[in-house]
Amino acid sequence: MADFDFDVLVIGSGPGGYVAAIRAAQLGLKTACAEGRETLGGTCLNVGCIPSKAMLHASEYFDAAANGAFAKLGIKVKPELDLDAMHGQRKDAVKGLTGGIEFLFKKNKVEWVKGYATFTGPNTVKVGDRTVTAKNIIIATGSSVTPLPGVEIDQKVVVDSTGALELPKVPEHMVVIGGGVIGLELGSVWRRLGAKVTCVEFLDQILPGFDGEVRKEANKIMKKQGIEFKLGTKVTGVATKGGKATLTVEPAKGGASETIDADCVLVSIGRKPNTDGLGLDAIGLQVNNRGQIETDHDFRTKVPGVWAIGDVIPGPMLAHKAEDEGIAVAENIAGLTGIVNHDVIPSVVYTMPEIAGVGLTEEQAKEKGEVKVGKFPMLANSRAKTNHEPDGFVKVIADAKSDRVLGVWCIASVAGTMIAQAAQAMEFGATSEDIAYTCHAHPTHSEALKEAAMAVTGKPIHI
Question: Is 236 in contact with 257 (CB distance < 8 Å)?
Answer without folding.
Answer: yes
